[in-house]
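Notes on consecutive records. When two proteins share a document, each keeps its own sequence and its own token line. Never mix them. Below: protein one.
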Amino acid sequence: MSGSRAVDDDHEGGAAGTLGDDLAAALHHAVREAAQRLDAVAAAVYLLSPDRTELWIAMIGGGPPSVFTLPGRMTLDAPYASARALAGDEVAVLDDPDAPHERGPGTTVCPYPYLAAAAPLAAAGQRFGSLTVLRPEGTDGYGPGRRAELARIAGRLAITLAALHRRGTAVTAANLPVLVPVLGAESSADADPDGPWGSPGVPGSAGRSLMYPLQRLADLLNRATTMEHVTAAARFCVMSPFQARAMVLSCVTEGRLWVIGHSGDSAGLVRELHGCGLHTRTPAARAARGNALLLADDPGSAAPRPARSGAGPVTAHLPLVGSRHVMDVPITGGRHVVGLCCLSYAGPRAFSPAERAVLTMMAGLLGSAVERVELNARRHALAEGIQKRLLPPTLAEVPGLTTTARYQPATATAEVGGDWYDVIRMPDDRVALVIGDVEGHTMESAAAMGQLRSAVAAYATEGHGPAALLQRTSGLLARLGTDTLATCCVVALDPEDGTAEVALAGHPAPLLRLPDGTVRTLDAPANVPLGLPGPGTGAYRAREHTIPHRSVLVLYSDGLFDPRQDEAAALLGAAGDAFGTDLEGLADRLLGGAAGAGGRRDDAALLLARYEGPDTRQVPRTGHLSIQRRDLRGVGQARAFVHERLCGWGLADLSDDVELVTSEIVTNALVHAGSDVDVRLRVYEDRIRLEVRDSASDPPVPALYSLSEEGCARAEHGRGLFLVDALADTWNTSPNGRGKTVWLEMDIPQAQERRATGPEGSGRPAE
């Protein structure tokens, strides 16, 4: 780095309280004299720590932003001018200790555009620290005259410090450095007098105006929890103040740059950056390797810049990349580059040293925010992945019963949840509908949930009734030696006569939506949650109900609805008649109606089951096909599966259209989801229903339907979805615990004709 480094203060405590009056006066005189005589934008005094193992900054003189680029503490062997001067007992000039090998003539490198020089503070056999000054990069630097002047000022200060030490004054730094203004430094060449910052002719106005967006950015990034928040903060505090036409944020992953946010006229820049390899010699790749290249002014042709004395600093211009001038600022996290902030301009743009210093500070803030948000995103993805693997991949197919399920993780936390659902076929031809909730949001909760789901499935498969099933599961959870408790609801339904046995373990009772829209609760003894140890918990009891045909059972966890407020019953009652047959739409309505404005703080599970009754005319004919991940031959298998089933069911006339939409959706799932794909085909009396399930949660959206570039980038899209939209009577996508289901329905023309003409082809409309 040129001139100075980012603050190296991992531990700030343990210093003295304040500087003494005599010590403060001596330091103030020295930093003011050094800044003025050496045409510096900042001067600072570093003093040895009480244990004499580090240098701590004691006083800084100058104006923003340069005074904020100096490191707060450093070890005695650190690669800084201040440490080198004290170690070598002579004036040290830090040009660029880590200059990249590929740095060429006429270029400068970010970050901080300052040249540092330091002189040791030593007298009477005592070493006290260093006196350090900063000058803008591109000036005439530190010739022999300036080095000698710096050494003289440091020598006089060292003599004063030795005298104070003999009188018993503690010559050491305070907890925080003292910042003092230096007349002339604030209005020096550190700030561009022709730039947009501050009020003309007001000393210090430019530097202080530059610092405002930096402080605002820090405040916004402290509250950022998503990459959208980070991008919005950068747009407001970086792109707008620096008057860029476009901005792109990217991260470095697996040797490539990946766009994580953009704003403005950024489409072309996004295409160039997304997926760009770091091994290339593009300006962006070189910047990601730590070399933000700018073209320096030609001293022979540039107009002289105003300065207090001597030559003014050389400003830096943006290189021309294609048709744009682009500033690539490395986003740093700790001591490594985590990405880039790219600012694009339609024409040439010069950057003063102060602007480049502030951009470097902003890059450090952005880097920390990007790392934090990405870490949270990885934790959330891990939690969501664990949850998906613990939920059933598909729901069991039961004649006379149509089911669907939803799982939504908590949006206000990245922790894994413990909600689950299941549909299990029992040996006596009944079906067990199960929903449960393990307390807590920890890995232990997720592990307990997986064990409970397996136990419930095993006991149900053995034929135990709901009450006995819960009794055995509770004993198992208590024997696992965990303090975790869980609630559960089990409904054992007989599809032949509609008898339903309901057992609860501290869980909300299920709801029943009757064909006329009436909603009632299937009451049962509340019992105690699962996992309570000891014999005093008592036996679990169940209650039997009769379910009318075409009714909908609703099982849910308390993370979705508060049962005390009858929220679920109100939403069910408000649902129209169409939702009595459209379970997917009803599930979406329930989840959408329960979403809170502040984000869901608990994960939520929902299981819906529509009881068709023993009337076999209402029971759909079904077929199922599984395709392994990335097996593109599965598209042909899916077409053949649809053709064979429909022809066997006497619907060959509809086969071509269904095959076409099947191939499009299956191809989308294989290419975008990268997971196993399940294809299910159902034929009802009046319609065909196709379902394609995969493990990706991103929805398939025709590109022209996407409302934003970000939404288009996240969605699966392609021209094939327009065919689906054109051929299907209705289609949609439904999330579930392990991904999503893309489903569509196509009416059977013969059924429409029968409904129009009446029974037996009488020509009369059906009543």
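Protein two starts on the next line and is unrelated to protein one.
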Amino acid sequence: MHFKWKYVPPTSDELRLAGELSEKLNMSPLLTQLLVKRGITTESAAKQFFKPQLADLINPFRMKDMDAAVDRLNDAMGRKERVLVYGDYDVDGCTAVALVYKFLQQFYSNIDYYIPDRYDEGYGISRKGLEYAQRTGVKLVIILDCGIKAVKEIAYAKSLGIDFIICDHHVPDEEMPPAVAILDPKRADDPYPFKQLCGCGVGFKLMQAFAKNNGIPFSRLIPLLDFCAVSIAADMVPVVDENRILAFHGLKILNQNPSVGLKAIIDICGLSGRDISMSDIVFKIGPRINASGRMENGKESVDLLVEKDINEALRKAKHINEYNEQRKDIDKHMTEDANQIVSRLESQKHQSSIVLYDEHWKKGVIGIVASRLTEIYFRPTVVLTRDGDLATGSARSVMGFDIYSAIKSCRDLLINFGGHTYAAGLTLRWADIPTFRKRFQKYVEEHIQPEQIEAYLRIDAIIDFKDITKKLYNDLKRFSPFGPSNPKPVFCTLGVYDYGTSKVVGRSQEHIKLELVDSKSGVVVNGIAFGQSASARYIKSRRSFDIAYTIEDNVFKRNQVQLQIEDIRPRKSE
């Protein structure tokens, strides 16, 4: 796929601010321009950005209902009541359960955890889960990454004498469940200043408040920050403000002294001895934690994450890795099926959204397929599968479009729905899918901007190869952790040539290993262009072209960098 390149040169004001910062920070104007583009215009803001401090975490008691949540948890422990930590079956839910359970278990033994089965129980609080709680004598449930819409279920639990503390980050409805405390920064009446926490982040804030209230040193929480980093990366929440602090310090733990369960996954992924990044979590660690919930039961992932014995953890990690291999096969076949359906549905190709359904698709993989289709077609996408008379689905969005609001506009057709701006889940009657598709498409057409359904590549700066040094790479690393709202900088170099040694590589000859020369400076740089072998013939013709890329460490040559090519574009003059 070729992108439209979008480069906005810095304004005179931005250049002035970047120049002032450059002197104060002893950093190149190129990099301080990147800071200014991110809204960082003062020396103190830059220092806070480069060295996020745990001391700058927001007081957890600023979150609405936090006092009530901590009081109820203290009461439960004082009365020796059984506590159940309950969570969603995705990465965010599993890491949240592992974090809360591991922390509380140090101080309290009458505690258990529960993850519902995606296929047998579905999303959120299930009747089976409540029966388990009642049967095992639970009096308090801490529910993580779900529960904000479970009005009937929590009312029923209350009638059984079971209280709930909700820790969620999804958008609430007008009617709130009758829980003893509802921790959700997206509540309209919540004054908490940072609204973009993930579910694990909300769970962490509850533990931070509990520790503060009970005189437990904050240092006891630090070893659990690796769960926060994994959750923030996998749930694709903005890596800014409080999320940046948690991710920054969580990555330190993940690299230096990860929990036993995560260490086992790191070993299975082949990441041992490497500097683990947010990208490694997104593409390697996260999918493996997700795999057990997608293929069988997410509880197996929590079993692994709370494991204390490394040999047992490695055994469990290998088992989960097998699920991941099965998941990849199913995902590949389903995506191929979906692509064929899209290609047959000429009308959908020209529409602003995609709604696909097939009664044979596996429920646990439809979210991944929706993500793949969104990446391929740049359309808000809903993928549905059959569950008796019902259809259950996952929705994924494109940058800047609120898919939750689009789904909410069809709420009279829906039995259940929930989510946030870029991802949502929904349930409706199978027979209502055609009506839903028309209504959803109409809403998207009326609200989406043309540029949101085009493949844009935002260029941060135009540079020459002589500017690419190990020092530049090391300075760029200080901008990490990268993610939504803090993307890895993309550079552009104009008029480059093949040095004569570039070649197609990969099992299916799908990538290009490049050696390029800059026509201006004559400097030669190595690069890799994943999935772009279609450009190989043009490159080998020795004609000039422009490249957009990120700057990465060269894992094969110490003290060298290489380019990861995002896009290749022939020179317009050619």
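For the record: The longest helix spans residues 310-344.
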